[in-house]
């Protein structure tokens, strides 16, 4: 895939960003940012009200910008760039005025496709990965089950080898992009071996006989995200749709989690900064007892603290990315960052909303939307408690 034509960046670059980003990163961010302001943000309210955004048309446009290609090798249709470019893309996607679309994009670029890019056969890459990178197909990752969210080893979905096919049975839930997706990267047990050694990943076209979808409705937030439950009833999956080796699925999934968590941190930075800035502006305009709310020391001090926390999280993220690029195992840093990001998103949105008073309790307020949307990040991609478990375990081994 040819590198996208990208306009020269003109924005003011924060000093801290020079730690990680060079001119090429800012050119990509500038291109994506202009697209978001022109083709995404004007329609966010409509898509939120409809509880759906047009994934196929939007992903085709994002594919043309190279959004799904930056972290994929050239030999499978990507741009062959390092992981810092994935972080740059994720940060810029945070300028979307809701959480649903950045999450859906991250699923396609950093959750459903990494194992396929690293371990898939050339046949699978040609049929599924290349068109997904180009935005011609929409993908989803089907790991979670009702009783097995953070505990991936506890999944019950099974794939039994029969002749030249695997026969897939089970149910996956909380599947982002699941209603509109063309294919799913599905984790299933394929043997009676121990839980960490009996799982495999498959590419499953979602128009296959025996696949049924049901929409998860009435979520607290992420309203324009199509979240599905996928039912697999004797679905025949050709053996060549196996990603990599049988029994390696759990290992492949664990490898992918660290980059997923770094992207999750990156995508939260801009929404949190926007929340603080909108609140700062509002409290300067809103008067109580004859003076702007902002002039109360408790208000401007608290906003200053929140902005400091956001910048500290950015520094942790950039350190983790630099170490990841140097070949270091960043499981500890990624887990710390993910924990901090989820908790900080809760603090920022809750405390900013408080300063909006009754206006903050209205449905259409963007701060209120962020309050609803960002709450998910203490649950998804590994709940806070899982991050604490990883961090404490790694501390004990030092």
Automatic annotation (TrEMBL):
InterPro entries named among the record's database cross-references: Acyl-CoA_dehydrogenase, Acyl-CoA_DH_CS, Acyl-CoA_Oxase/DH_mid-dom, Acyl-CoA_Oxase/DH_mid-dom_sf, AcylCo_DH-like_C, AcylCo_DH/oxidase_C, AcylCoA_DH/ox_N, AcylCoA_DH/ox_N_sf
Annotated Gene Ontology cellular component terms: cytoplasm
Catalytic activity: (2S)-2-methylbutanoyl-CoA + oxidized [electron-transfer flavoprotein] + H(+) = (2E)-2-methylbut-2-enoyl-CoA + reduced [electron-transfer flavoprotein]
Any GO molecular function: flavin adenine dinucleotide binding
UniProt KW keywords: FAD, Flavoprotein, Oxidoreductase
Domain (Acyl-CoA dehydrogenase/oxidase N-terminal): residue spans on this chain: 24-136
Domain Acyl-CoA oxidase/dehydrogenase middle: 140-235
Domain Acyl-CoA dehydrogenase/oxidase C-terminal: 247-394
GO biological process: fatty acid beta-oxidation using acyl-CoA dehydrogenase
Domain of life: Eukaryota
Cofactors demanded by this protein: FAD
The family this protein is said to belong to: Belongs to the acyl-CoA dehydrogenase family.
Protein name: Acyl-CoA dehydrogenase 6
Organism: Mesorhabditis belari
Taxonomic lineage from the root: Eukaryota, Metazoa, Ecdysozoa, Nematoda, Chromadorea
């Amino acid at each position: 895939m040819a590198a996208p034509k990208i306009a020269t960046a003109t924005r003011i670059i924060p000093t801290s960003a020079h730690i990680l980003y060079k001119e090429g990163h800012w050119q990509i961010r500038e291109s994506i940012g202009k697209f978001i302001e022109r083709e995404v943000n004007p329609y966010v309210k409509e898509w939120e009200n409809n509880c759906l955004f047009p994934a196929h048309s939007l992903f085709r446009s994002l594919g043309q910008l190279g959004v799904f290609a930056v972290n994929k090798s050239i030999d499978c249709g990507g741009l062959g760039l390092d992981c810092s470019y994935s972080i740059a893309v994720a940060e810029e996607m945070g300028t979307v005025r809701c959480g649903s679309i950045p999450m859906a994009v991250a699923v396609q670029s950093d959750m459903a496709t990494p194992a396929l890019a690293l371990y898939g056969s050339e046949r699978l890459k040609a049929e599924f990965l290349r068109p997904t990178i180009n935005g011609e197909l929409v993908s989803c990752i089907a790991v979670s089950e009702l009783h097995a969210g953070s505990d991936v080893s506890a999944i019950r979905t099974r794939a039994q080898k029969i002749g030249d096919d695997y026969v897939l049975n089970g149910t996956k839930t909380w599947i982002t992009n699941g209603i509109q997706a063309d294919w799913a990267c599905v984790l299933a047990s394929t043997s009676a071996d121990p839980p960490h050694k009996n799982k495999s990943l498959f590419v499953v076209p979602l128009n296959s006989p025996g696949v049924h979808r049901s929409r998860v409705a009435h979520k607290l937030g992420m309203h324009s995200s199509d979240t599905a439950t996928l039912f697999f009833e004797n679905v025949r999956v050709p053996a060549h749709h196996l990603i990599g080796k049988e029994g390696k699925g759990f290992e492949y999934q664990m490898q992918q989690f660290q980059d997923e968590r770094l992207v999750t941190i990156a995508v939260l930075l801009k929404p949190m900064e926007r929340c603080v800035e909108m609140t700062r502006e509002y409290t300067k305009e809103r008067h109580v007892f004859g003076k702007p709310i902002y002039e109360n020391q408790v208000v401007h001090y608290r906003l200053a603290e929140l902005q400091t926390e956001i910048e500290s999280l950015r520094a942790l993220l950039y350190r983790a990315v630099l170490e990841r690029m140097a070949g270091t195992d960043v499981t500890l840093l990624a887990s710390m960052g993910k924990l901090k990001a989820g908790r900080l998103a809760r603090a920022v949105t809750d405390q900013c909303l408080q300063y909006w008073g009754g206006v903050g309790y209205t449905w259409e307020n963007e701060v209120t939307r962020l309050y609803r949307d960002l709450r998910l990040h203490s649950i998804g991609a590994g709940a806070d408690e899982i991050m604490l478990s990883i961090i404490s375990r790694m501390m004990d081994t030092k």
